[in-house]
Amino acid sequence: MSRVFLTGATGMIGSNIAEQLVEQGDTVRALVRVGSDTAPLEAFGVDVVRGDITDAAAVLRAAEGCEYVIHSAAVLGGPTQIAGEHEAVNVVGTGHVLDAAARVGATRVVQLSTTTFFDAQAAPLTEHSPLDPAPSDDPYTQTKLRAYLDAMRRVDDGQDICIVISGGAYGTSPLPERSMVVPSYNARIVGALRGEIREYVGFPIPWVYAGDVARASVLATRKGVAGERYLAFGPPTAVGGVPFFCNAACEVAGSPNRVAEVAVAELEDPDVAARFGPSLVALARKRFPTPFFVNEQTVERLGYQPLSLHAGLGRTIPWLRDHDLL
Fold first, then answer.
1. pLDDT tens readout for residues 138-152
2. Distance separating alpha carbons of residues 75 and 96, to the nearest angstrom
């Protein structure tokens, strides 16, 4: 089989990618920051290289000899965003990964991305949707957009890069505690079931089991096409706001708790807006079509078959309990 260089291996999606690659017989080399818990990864055979994605030499050293690259490392969009951190990882770090892939002659790079800078208001989101002409100016959206544009410029120059866009990922992970790090949707499940989340902003999120995003990423290494995007979402019925998601979790768990949706008008209050952060507030103020997405190309090209929301939650909630996270 093949040798794969993986970034973000301690994250929820990245750890699932690592596990699935090893299960199919690939050798996985993961670049992991000093101090990170890598014992679960090493236990199932991941070759861990200590280093930081912001260090070009460390990235190149980890990528040597690898045929495929999956880049899932990122600073995510949470309530508090520091522009410099997003720039260093999402833009500069991504550039280092793409540079290293080119230097070592990797056959393909699979780069994970987000929906937030595509135009999903005029028509349902697809693999061919245009860029949003007025994307949110929060650091997460802006840096992920720049990383995407950089990748597409490199594709035009002949590098083989395809993009996997994750929905709102939740689910099981080889690193349970890491799956709860902000802005974790697993943590939202726990908060709702404990009655700690009573209300939340609402906008359409295509919910997806983390193992399904990982599967799409792994499939894209062999089945993807340079320059194409793949929407790694759950089925169309798994679209709704955080209240919808939390309430589905409560239903699956048999809990009477429910989460109400914050009205858009309330977000004009700076104190209310600060509770959710700039990325979520910007999305909550937008209006989206129904259906929210159509991902026929992803299904056909990759043979992608995601779990339903209730099936995914049915796996996740017992797992959270088994690991004393709930």
1. 899 999 999 999 999
2. 15
